[in-house]
Design brief:
The chain is mainly alpha-helical. It contains eight helices and no strands. The longest helix is centred in the N-terminal third of the chain and has 32 residues. It is globular and about 50 Å long.
Length: 203
């Protein structure tokens, strides 16, 4: 005879695993994309000979504008589509923007790519904790939201380590690799995003 308590416990553990798969890969990418500019900006400014104003626009303004757009659109997207689908979209946008940021030849091209990356960051930053709070059982909800924040910080740390490693031996074009490697967690997150469970209310 099945024990209802054990059955519910096993179901909660399964839900825990499925929900935790997504932050493990994607949220570090948002922290990485946000902070990798710190290691790349020196090479960018040297190669393109940007002024102080151009450097400021490239380093932060374009990304932050994208974040605002993404965060503003996240609620509407989540209402129209299931959050896992929105997170999958954000992962694909992350991947495309990572490659696009690695291949520009001018300031407008670079800023456009960073704007798109910012949109993905804004969407992920809004939808991920919202979805976790709705889908996770109360017993593990705080733990999963904490994992979400921890993953962002780990992504920032990895970006600094990547910047340090790429600065050694790759020459002035090393900044391209710094941005391109962000596509890896984006691709890895696509499958877990598709397998995330529904939240309460049919999300």
């Amino acid at each position: 005879m099945n024990n209802p308590t054990l059955t519910q416990s096993a179901a909660a553990r399964g839900l825990h695993v499925r929900i935790s798969r997504w932050p493990r890969w994607r949220i570090p990418g948002s922290g990485f994309d946000t902070a990798i500019i710190n290691g790349a900006i020196v090479f960018l400014r040297r190669q393109f000979q940007w002024t102080d104003l151009q450097t400021e626009v490239a380093a932060g303004s374009s990304l932050l504008v994208g974040c605002a757009i993404g965060a503003g659109a996240a609620g509407t997207l989540s209402d129209r589509f299931r959050p896992p689908q929105v997170l999958l979209l954000a992962a694909l946008v992350f991947a495309v923007s990572s490659i696009a940021t690695a291949i520009p030849s001018s300031l407008p091209q670079f800023c456009a790519a960073r704007l798109v990356a910012g949109i993905a960051i804004g969407i992920a930053s809004m939808v991920s904790p919202l979805y976790i709070s709705e889908a996770a059982p109360p017993r593990i909800r705080g733990q999963l939201v904490g994992m979400n924040q921890l993953a962002i910080v780990l992504g920032i740390l990895v970006s600094y380590l990547t910047g340090f490693g790429r600065c050694r031996g790759l020459g002035p074009e090393s900044w391209r690799w710094m941005f391109a490697v962000a596509a890896v967690p984006s691709v890895l997150s696509a499958r877990p995003s598709r397998r995330c469970p529904r939240a309460r209310g049919g999300w």
